[in-house]
Amino acid sequence: MLLKGTRVVEWAEGLSAPFTARLLADLGADVVKIERPGGDPLRQKGPFWPGHTGADASALFGYVNAGKRSVTLDLDREPGRLAEFLSGAAILVESQPAATWDQRNLSIAALQARYPALVILSLTPFGRSGPLRNAPATDFTLQHRAAFAYNMARPVDEPEARGPLAGADHEGPLAVGVAGALAAVWGLLVAAGGAGPHIDLASHDFYAHIAFEGLADWSNGERAFSRRRVKREGTEAAGGLTWILPCADAGWVMVSPREQHQWDRWIELLGNPAWAADAAFCGTRVERRRNWFELQAAMTEWSSYQSAEEVTRRAQAVSVACFPISTPDALLRNAQLQHRQFFDRLVSPSGMEATVPGLPIHLQTTSHGALPHARTLRSPSLEPV
Q1: Is CB count within 10 Å lower at the N or C end of the chain?
Q2: How far apart are alpha carbons 89 and 117 in whole angstroms?
Q3: Among 78, 45, 139, 64, which Cα is nearest to 380's?
Q4: Closest CA to 287 of 241, 234, 322
Q5: What number of CA atoms fall less than 13 Å from residue 319's CA on the CB side?
Q6: pLDDT band for position 238 (50/70/90)?
Q7: pLDDT of 116-156, one tens digit each?
Q8: pLDDT at position 169, please?
Q9: Which CATH number fits domain 238-325: 3.40.50.740, 3.40.1550.10, 3.30.1540.10, 3.90.1300.10?
Q10: What pLDDT shows up at residue 161?
């Protein structure tokens, strides 16, 4: 295992920082999670295991914290106990507000002086510096403040009447957690030289880092940034050269015959329907973009009698860009993911199981060591200290 023998202490809540520590555990680290009395608030957030109550009822908590050991520690009364856990640790993952450190007479600088090889990863909303460093935030508000959610919140018919809702799923903060795990491993490489770094990772910075679409629009001259829906905009994408088509098995495919030679092969695949001979209707990219909506209806007459898998297979066989739009149940049946043993099993305290995403990487060492896949995972139970 990549991080076997590496001890990690997690003093964090929310999703991002705990997911960072979860990934380090996946890589073989021994992770000890410090929870406040009564437990991490995420234990009270669903989805919950059916019929379960109490500290182990949250399946979300179980997924984000699987593979760790958990202890309950009242650092308000005994702030010095944190140092005990850090003895022999290689990494501290923390997400505490600056005031929390101050109230407990703790400081990152003091920990660095006491444990010079310790890698300290601080994962907070706005980082440890700047005018917003102590500002309150949620994952939802961070994604909007950093402009990451802007493209997800548009377009709408009446932007004046409808607020820019978007960015509420867990994918964002979990992606921040992935960045945190990468930073922590980088920190170990730096610490091998004798001095452990303090890594200051701001979720706000991460979202701004990947908000390239809006910045590209600005560079291209856009200044109004209107959220108003363009007339007749619906399933069409990419300027009328991509279509989303319904299929006979209630599935959907996206097809994009952008170039003329691709369009010609696509039309042949459709059986050369009579409408395809009308040059004014679809002879060139210009006409196809202008008449995309009518073409959507015409192509649906064919796709609605084919399965999504069949449309995808036949289109790709003639080098036309096409792929199925997967639903969660289709993802669970995905042959590629099954072959790579992507999915893990999360087990509840009573033995119930749920299929959850696993590691997206395979790693093989020269001594034939490998990261485990198709694992059985369990949520850490609270252990008082």
Answers
A1: C
A2: 9
A3: 64
A4: 241
A5: 6
A6: very low
A7: 999 999 999 999 999 999 999 999 999 999 988 887 887 78
A8: 79
A9: 3.30.1540.10
A10: 86
Terminal CA-CA length for the chain: 29
Q: CA nearest 86: which of 116, 118, 122, 109?
A: 118
Contact 132, 97 (CB under 8 A): no
Quick one: three-class SS letters along 124-162?
A: ECCCCCCCCCCCCCCHHHHHHHCCCCCHHHCCECCCCCC
Task: Give residue 160's identity as a one-letter amino acid code.
Answer: E
Query: How does strand 69-72 pair with strand 91-94?
Result: unpaired
CA distance to 130, 213, 239, per residue, from 95 (Å)? 16, 29, 43
Which amino acid appears at position 69 of this protein? R
- Using the 8-state DSSP alphabet, how is residue 47 labeled? -
From CA 115, how far away is CA 90, in angstroms rounded?
9
| Each residue's pLDDT tens digit, 68-104 | 999 999 988 888 888 889 999 999 999 999 888 888 8
* Record: fold of 7-36+73-211: Rossmann fold (3.40.50)
**Residue the block writes with tokens 């959610």:** 149
Q: Domains of the chain: which residue ranges?
A: 7-36+73-211, 238-325
Closest of 152, 323, 293 to residue 232, by C-alpha: 293
Percent of the chain as helix, strand, coil, to the nearest 5: 40, 15, 45
Distance from C-alpha of 274 to C-alpha of 230, rounded to nearest angstrom = 30
- Residue 11 burial by CB count (10 A; 0-12/13-18/19+): exposed, middle or buried? buried
Percent of the chain with pLDDT over 90: 69
CB 200 within 8 A of CB 182: no
Q: Which amino acid is at 289?
A: R
| 125 vs 223: CA distance, rounded Å | 28
pLDDT at 63 over 80: yes
The answer to whether 129 and 200 have CB atoms below 8 angstroms apart is: yes
- Note whether 143 and 164 are within 8 A (CB): no
Q: How large is the C-alpha radius of gyration of the chain? A: 26
Q: What is the DSSP letter of 234?
A: S
Query: What's the CA dihedral at 34, 39, 41, 43 to 10 degrees?
Result: 110
CA gap 228, 279 in Å, rounded: 32
